[in-house]
Design goal:
two-stranded antiparallel ribbon, 25 helices, disordered N terminus, single chain, mainly alpha, 52% helix
Length: 487
Amino acid sequence: MRVPADFDGVTPSDLLPADPLLHLLRRATFGPSPASIAEIRRLGAPAWLERQLQPSTIADPVGAELDSRFPHARTTISGVRQKIATGRLKKYDWKPMWQVSQATVARAVWSERQLFEVMAGFWSNHLNVTCPTGDVWQSRADYDHNVIRRYALGRFADLLKASARHPAMLTYLDNRWSTRAAPNENYGRELLELHTVGLAYTEADVKNAARLLTGLTVSDTGYYLYDGKKHAAGAVKVLGFRHANATAAGGEKASLALLDYLAMHTATARRVVTKLCVRFVADQPPAGLITRLVKVYLDNRTAIVPVLRALFTSPEFAESLGAKTRTPFEDVVATVRILGLGPEPTGTAAIESLYSMCRNAGQAPLAWAPPNGYPDVASAWASTSSLLVRWNLHLSLAAGWWPTTLVRPDSLVQEFAGPLPATHGALIDAVSRRLIGGTLPRSSVEALARFFDKTASAPLKPTDPAVGWKFPYLMAMLLNSPSFALR
């Protein structure tokens, strides 16, 4: 859903409660949950943020237990080969990739390390290797675990170099087949345009980068390999980077030097920082904030945690209430989180269903086919068909129709409204506070009351449909509102 910038005098910021704690939760997590709201109110924003920036200090028993249900999702390349040898997987089996994708949904919903999971998603999108896709069947799980998740809150330079020497990236962008006799420009071009400096390059830069990157390849058994026989030696110039690249044996070291140079390039700093600001602040982020964060990025030698700390504590972030809209994936995850639904006690059927919901809504995690990653602006997701899918899934989740095995409250009314409110309007207010953090304008409350053939002031009895069979519809209508669409 794309919320109009100004509709009858109502701006997006008017649709959300002016609560800085909820604002931080909506942006630095995949959506507030009852537990996270209680936690941030107990700790306060500074302590909560510092805790999230150090995910290893956060106990995450539910996330760990859910991880164990996807045993192939963290399988290394050698692990895949061993499982094939012992018959637990078949050659070309996509099961590890499907489990990576489904585990991504589970972690986004239930992990306590929410900012880490958001950043893992951010980098998966920035250094996209489509999952699932055939050529990376034995390496994509390893890429997720040993590249993206290992460096999600580390230094971008280390992340970039790890991706450049991983079979999944080298296969996805064709560098494994690049040789000195026939350099393949695909990875060299995307390295510059998508991963680092953006459009600040020439065709000569692409050709020289492609030549320098020859030799970074994949062995016949699927592991990363530097093969000097494939490397095109000879002096190269890429942007302001120059290297003699004198010998085939030194090609890997020269390639890593280029990657370090690109990671610290001002254009890369601006590109990475701008994407972070688009993710966390606004579709069109303030220029002044970007300029300040570029300096933080460069001063800290590409370390991401100082950039995030400066971003989330900036006045521009505080003032960005209502400036971001949830993507379909975020909408599904945020719905489960705010409803407080728990994972099924065993198995993965419900999580697989949530993955299907994301796919039906147009954004299965990690599945974007081109190398540029899913768009992160509201206009890319604005369509009536997508909106209808979201509305239907809201009702399915609120009513417990699908998936049926998620753990739900014993009493929806007690959970979402508390003791029986005196009027229909008071009921709507109570559920609104629970689901969107505040109450709606009186005109909206009256409109919702008319769904029950009542006025807002009409007394509420325990036998009324509003707290009976119609109650899930009230929940769904609030989840359908522009207020919930914003993050």
